[in-house]
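USER: Please consider what follows.
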Amino acid sequence: MSSKEPPEVSERSHLKVFLPRKLVECLPKCPVLPKEQLRWNTNEEIASYLITFEKHDEWLSCSPKTRPQNGSVILYNRKKVKYRKDGYCWKKRKDGKTTREDHMKLKVQGVECLYGCYVHSSIVPTFHRRCYWLLQNPDIVLVHYLNVPAMEECGRPCAPRLCSPP
C-alpha cells in the first residue's frame, strides 16, 4: 500500500478491516454467499466474500460443521469456532502428529491481501479443504471443501471417506 493511498476503513463492533482503496473500489459486493461451489473460487471472489460478510451476519457459522459436503463454502470467526475439527482425515506431516498444510499469500489486483491454507485428504487424494482470510482481518475465515473431479475405475465419482473415531 502506497503512502499516497489512504486505507479504506470499515468498522464493526468487534472488527476493524483496513483495505487499500484500490481493492475496495474494484471488488463487487456480494449479495449472497454460495452454500455450494463446485469449482475453486478466484482470488477476487474470495476477497469479495470476505469484505462483504460484515453486512450479512447470517453468513457466519457459529459452530463447526461435521464432514461438510463436497462444494461447501462456510464462513467462520476463527476466534470463536474450531473449524479445523471437521471430522475428515487430512494428510499429516512426517511427524505423524500435525496436519500438513500448505500456506501462501495471494494477490488481488496486484495487491497481496489474502492468506490461503490448503490441505489434502489422507484417504481420497482429490478431496481438499482450502481456508482463506484477509491479511488485514485474520479473524474471519472462508472455508471451502472440494473434491476435484476424478473417476474411480468403475466410472463412479470418488467420494471422501470418513475417519473412524479414535
Observations:
- The chain has two helices and eight strands.
- The longest helix spans residues 43-52.
